[in-house]
Design a protein that fits this description.
The protein has 2 domains: about 5-50, DNA polymerase, domain 1; about 60-320, Aldolase class I (TIM Barrel, Alpha-Beta Barrel), CATH 3.20.20. About 35% of the residues lie in helices and about 20% in strands. The chain has 11 helices and 12 strands. The chain has helices at about 5-10, 20-30, 45-50, 125-140, 160-170, 190-195, 215-220, 220-225, 230-240, 260-270, 295-300; strands at about 60-65, 70-80, 85-90, 95-100, 100-105, 120, 145-150, 180-185, 205, 245-250, 275-280, 310-315. The protein has a 10-stranded mixed beta sheet with strand order 1-2-3-4-7-8-9-10-11-12, covered by helices on one side. A two-stranded antiparallel ribbon has the order 5-6. α4 packs across α5 (about 160-170) and α6 runs parallel beside α9 (about 230-240). The longest helix has 15 residues, at about 230-240. The radius of gyration is 21 Å and the shape is globular. It binds S-adenosyl-L-homocysteine (SAH) and iron/sulfur cluster (SF4).
Length: about 325
């Protein structure tokens, strides 16, 4: 809930507006897990709210990975019994959490475990923010980065994702900077345009995963609805409107999109756009694809030495506990 939501709740109970601010602070800044802990609120107000609202809509069912491990995966249960996963990653000073935006995903990308689930439902704003608050409690250090790269397609749950992100970014609450929050989309063109039009300050990542329309079509059914040229055009318009670098993600699949020709095509596809390229060697999910050998991965990366954009490689953390990119799935 936003500060406005709290304001109208406390008004219903004939309490002054500053009670809303107190509630907001307890929940988002202090991250309390019970109404009892909210010391400066009247008892009756707490009882009334507790009777009508849920403070924490998620429960931790299982944690994979030890506290000292660089990656820990959390299986979380929603109030209606649906399950999702979120991942906490440590990398020197950077603590990143990977959040889910939906239960399952409608897009069915062939290389992604979440895609095999189909779409069950969108997550609520509360369920998205609760992933942050729960993982923060579990983390030894403050969270420095949030990525919407867990289960689901964030831009198909656009309104809730933006509202949740606004709460994570809110200066009186969690207060994580907009530049530390990245939303990754498989290429939902109308929402990329909406994101630009609304002047959203969060970072945008685009899962390109292929260098031609034919190639994308082979692994990403959504490419049929939003072809690569329309996708690139929308990203260029986003850049022209916002002047913010976009990151292209490229899952590297052996003998599918890892040739020298692919590297060349990729360079000509995105070179006139200020951007970054993040190559993600495929994490095995037991399907028909393979991860290229380390040598092949290095060969591919080597083709970008003179490219006009920065190339990074995501050596997915947590692949050993099935917490790597694309490995999140629940049954
Ligand atoms: N639905 C959004 C966000 C979640 S997926 C999207 O697709 O962008 C986050 C990233 O993981 C995407 O870039 C996706 O292409 C990548 N990914 C999916 N399956 C993968 C796998 N098996 N190995 C490596 N990366 C994968
Ligand atoms: Fe959905 Fe992203 Fe997985 Fe594709 S890669 S199925 S869009 S979660």
């Amino acid at each position: 809930m936003s500060l406005d939501d709290f304001t109208s709740i406390v008004k219903d109970y004939d309490e002054p507006k500053y009670r809303a601010e107190q509630l907001f602070t307890w929940i988002y800044k202090r991250n309390v897990q019970s109404f009892a802990e909210m010391e400066n609120l009247p008892k009756q107000l707490k009882i009334n709210i507790a009777n009508n609202y849920l403070l924490n809509p998620l429960k931790i069912l299982k944690v994979t990975g030890t506290k000292s491990a660089t990656t820990r995966k959390f299986l979380l249960e929603c109030n209606d019994g649906e399950k999702i996963e979120a991942v906490l990653m440590k990398e020197q000073k950077r603590i990143t959490i990977c959040l889910s935006s939906q239960v399952g995903c409608a897009l069915g990308c062939e290389f992604c475990a979440t895609g095999t689930m189909g779409i069950i439902r969108n997550l609520t704003v509360g369920e998205i923010v609760a992933q942050y608050l729960l993982l923060l409690k579990e983390s030894e250090k403050p969270i420095t980065n949030v990525v919407f790269m867990g289960m689901g397609e964030p831009f198909l749950n656009y309104n809730n994702v933006i509202k949740a992100t606004d709460l994570i970014n809110h200066p009186e609450g969690i207060n994580l900077g907009a530049r530390h929050i990245t939303i990754s989309t498989a290429g939902i063109v109308p929402q990329i345009r909406q994101f630009a039009k609304e002047k959203q300050r969060y970072k945008l990542a685009i899962s390109l995963n292929g260098s031609t329309q034919e190639q994308r079509l082979k692994t990403m059914p959504i490419a049929k609805k939003y072809p690569i040229d329309k996708l690139i055009e929308s990203v260029k318009d986003y850049y022209n409107a916002r002047r913010k670098l976009v990151t292209f993600e490229y899952v590297l699949l052996a003998d599918i999109n890892d040739s020298e020709l692919d590297a060349k095509r990729l360079i000509s596809l995105i070179s006139d756009l200020p951007c970054k390229l993040n190559v993600i060697p495929y994490n095995e999910i037991g399907g028909k694809f393979n991860r290229p050998s380390d040598e092949k991965i290095q060969d591919f990366l080597g083709k970008f030495i003179n490219a006009p954009f920065t190339v990074t490689t995501r050596w997915s953390k947590g692949a050993d506990i099935n917490a790597g990119c694309g490995q999140l799935v629940v049954s």
